[in-house]
Specification:
Layout: E1 3-9, E2 18-24, E3 32-42, H1 44-51, E4 65-73, E5 85-89, E6 99-103, E7 108-109, H2 116-134, E8 144-148, H3 153-165, E9 168-173, H4 176-184, E10 189-192, H5 198-205, E11 211-216, H6 223-228, E12 230-238, H7 252-256, E13 261-263, H8 267-270, H9 274-289, E14 297-302, H10 306-314, E15 321-325
Parallel strand pairs: 8-9, 8-11, 9-10, 11-12, 12-13, 14-15
Antiparallel strand pairs: 1-2, 3-4, 3-6, 3-15, 4-5, 5-7
Helix pairs in contact: 2-3, 2-9
This protein binds NADPH dihydro-nicotinamide-adenine-dinucleotide phosphate.
Length: about 325
């Protein structure tokens, strides 16, 4: 039996809480595969897990996104086989590893045209963008969406998705350079969250009306301003908490601000059914293969530098996706 370098959390905390162990790789059991990673995606949710914001039972693996090659399959696994190139988002935590034994259900086959690095940059973030635009509230060409943060891993995919569907995306990001990057990737307009008032600027850009939908992954710091950016009867999709969890609030606020709708979704509900996951992945891959979405990787690091990758993400010092290489 071989071993694989694997990140383990024995306690939650700062980036230094990520410990490394050589874990044995047993033969895959029923419904499982042995997967050797070629690229691993870093996501903000990894920080919520590591810090304890999203509770875990310890000890725990870390990481929810990877791409690689199947080395062995257990009994009953039919949709993938040894030698297949695959990628996944979700399943048990543990993507920060050279190789792992995991359930086969979250795996999808990777088209030859998509590299492992691209897959690790686009699976979790791109499926998120897919459900935000296609499965949460009806959004039609010409509708205006305010998206934040617009220049990160998820954000730059959202900008490209909106452009490819004729949706007007106003991207909000921290600083002029990040705003320029969002526009390069398809944001029609941008709002600099460091220097501009989010709600006032969104209203100005929509002739005073407000946007149809807000997709807010910043959380605590922007929640009220995002509500204030909406038109009457608009929808707030609060999908993340990079700045911390949204504080409890009086739901009467939604009436006072114009009969607003509010939802707090997670990708993992949307991809719980493997048949739906495969359909969503096929639609996402089509956008990548056609060139409508070019996964942008601005940080590549050896797997052993996962803690440094977390520090950079938390310091708002990254753009696009971060990928770890085993
Ligand atoms: P990003 O690459 O977007 O990095 C996070 C960005 O958040 C930073 O670069 C920064 O951009 C912004 N930010 C704003 N305030 C803070 C703060 N106080 N501390 C740190 N960062 C801050 O990360 P991801 O693409 O991985 O994730 C983006 C968001 O999407 C996260 O909230 C994540 O949880 C959410 N998400 C939700 C999913 C779901 O299904 N619910 C699935 C996937 C992602 P700037 O400098 O421009 O402000």
């Amino acid at each position: 039996m071989s071993v694989a370098r694997t990140a383990v959390l024995h306690a939650t905390g700062g980036p230094e809480a990520i410990a490394w162990e050589d874990r044995p790789l047993p033969a895959p059991g029923p419904g499982e595969v042995l997967l050797r990673h070629h690229a691993i995606g870093v996501n903000y949710i990894d920080i919520y897990h590591r810090s304890g914001l999203y509770p875990l039972s310890l000890p725990s693996g870390l990481g929810s996104e990877g791409a690689g090659v199947i080395e062995a399959v257990g009994e009953g696994v039919e949709h993938v086989a040894p030698g297949d190139r695959v990628a996944y988002a979700g399943g048990p935590l543990g993507a920060y590893a050279e190789a792992r034994v995991m359930p086969a259900a979250p795996l999808v086959k990777l088209p030859d045209a998509i590299s492992f690095e691209e897959a690790a940059a686009v699976m979790l973030k791109g499926l998120t963008v897919h459900y935000l635009f296609r499965r949460t509230v009806p959004i039609r060409p010409g509708d205006t969406v305010l998206f934040l943060p617009a220049a990160g891993g998820t954000g730059l995919i959202a900008c490209q998705w909106a452009r490819s569907e004729g949706i007007r995306l106003i991207g909000a990001a921290g600083g002029a350079a990040k705003c320029a990057l969002a526009r390069e990737h398809g944001a029609a307009e941008t709002i600099d969250m460091r220097t501009q008032d989010l709600a006032a600027e969104a209203r100005r850009l929509t002739g005073g009306r407000g946007v149809d939908v807000v997709m807010d992954g910043v959380g605590r710091d922007s929640f009220i301003a995002s509500l204030d950016a909406l038109r009457p009867l608009g929808t707030m999709i609060s999908f993340g908490n990079a700045s911390g969890k949204v504080e409890p609030f009086d739901i009467g606020l939604l009436a006072a601000k114009g009969s607003l709708m509010l939802t707090r979704p997670t990708l993992f509900t949307h991809i719980a059914d493997p048949a739906v996951l495969r359909r969503m992945a096929a639609e996402l891959f089509e956008k990548v293969i056609s060139g409508a979405i070019r996964p942008r990787i601005d940080q590549r690091r050896p797997l052993a530098e996962a803690a440094a990758a977390h520090r950079a993400l938390e310091a708002r010092a990254t753009t696009g996706a971060t990928v770890l290489l085993p």
